[in-house]
Amino acid sequence: MNFSNAALTKYWENNDNVENEAMDQQDQTDLDILKKFTSQKRVLLNVGGIRHEVMWRTLEKIPNSRLGKIRWAKSINEIGRLCDDINLAQNELFFDRHSSSFASILNFYRTGKLHLVEEMCILSFHEDLVYWGIDECFLESCCHLRYHQRKDTVLEEIRKEEEMEREKVNDEKFSHCFPKFRKSLWDLMENPQSSTTARIIAFVSIFFIIISSVTLTLNTMPEFQIKSNLTNTSNSSPVKQPFSSTNSIKQSQNQSDVVYTENPLFEAIEVACIAWFTLEYLLRLFSSPNKLNFIKSPLNIIDLISILPYFVTLLFDNQKYDNFNNARRTLTLFRVLRILRIFKLARHSTGLKSLGYTLKRSKKELGLLMMFLSIAVLLFSSLAYFAEKEEIDTKFTSIPSTFWWALITMTTVGYGDMVPSTTPGKLVGAICCIWGVLVIALPIPIIVNNFTEFYKEQKRREKSLKYKEERIKARNGINQLIKITDEIKLETLIPLLDKDTAHERI
Length: 506
Hints:
This protein is α+β, with helices and mostly antiparallel strands and 506 residues long. It has 18 helices and six strands. It has a four-stranded mixed β-sheet with strand order 2-1-4-3. A two-stranded antiparallel ribbon has the order 5-6. A hairpin with a 2-residue loop joins strand 1 (42-47) and strand 2.
């Protein structure tokens, strides 16, 4: 059948008209339904199963919020996009949300005052505010500060946990040179919570640190040293042994010198401790995923410093030096550094870690304290010098030499080696003492508060990580159980399916 162009055009125009009329009728129907729905004075808001009856005019107060947009919606479909379900018969809107915060939000529509829900997680409350389209700036002044403090605290905790997760060593970092063995060795040496063996190694390490520190202390007591006499037949100088581990105490006489040498038992204990510290450091260095970061770590630097003095002492023992005094000073310096091994306990002590981080976080307060002390020392040492310089045999000979007196007085130590004798000098000393107490007391509470907060934070993070590991284990167990259940179901269903298939074939 042939159609002319005019006939086709008329046909399509008729179709368009029919479609437009249908759309108009649908729009009119939706509009009638919307008018009927909003013609009621009240509307039921079902939030998480709890119904709230509210006036339509109440929702008009905040037009940019979710409920305000529902009030001013131009179609039922638009309302449907803003809620989860609509019951036109009961004039009810359903929202699949938790109802804890909705009472406070609905009260904001009614009274214009938004308050914090204390018993609710702050992040959940924030998410509800975002969902209902209400800005957090509407919070009342009584709740605004607490809301932001709690929110910032939780977000900071989440950020720190994420940082710890990023820093946590995973299998991918041990990609070269025996990765599985190095990962296991790293857990043994660095993570005492990873296994019972790792805890035993941590206890052994703490034992050697304590024994080494006690031995270093007792080794300086003459009661535990070996006494020996060196007889001189001439006027030559006494025998000197600066490079050995000997802590010499000589009694110079015409005929003999008395020399105290270290107890061989303490030397053997020292060798055993150094052997353990060296082995521990080398194993941790070998197993570390990032050698450069390992070497730069402050705790690892302390470990290295606690080991080096012994080997430097051995090196000095096997060498001869022309400049005897300089070599002895160098050796003494390295021997003093051995006491730093007590800081190795920081690896196993949350309290010592907290102390170190507190000093790091309190740099501004400590700098303020040093500035106050410096100004006060300069001021009171100058006043004391000018008050005492005219006295006979005075020890206040200059302003720099009086710095010592001012510092000791301000810290209320008072050794008594420098004492003002004049009335103006005593008055300056009294004011200096009172001023020192006030100056030192000002930043101390801030530092103590930083220590307390960081210590609690560390404990909370340790518990959080522990609980997180337990949750992961529980989830893995549930997933494994589901997997086993699915396998059992498959084993049960496959024979049944095989029977059905065989029956169909028959």
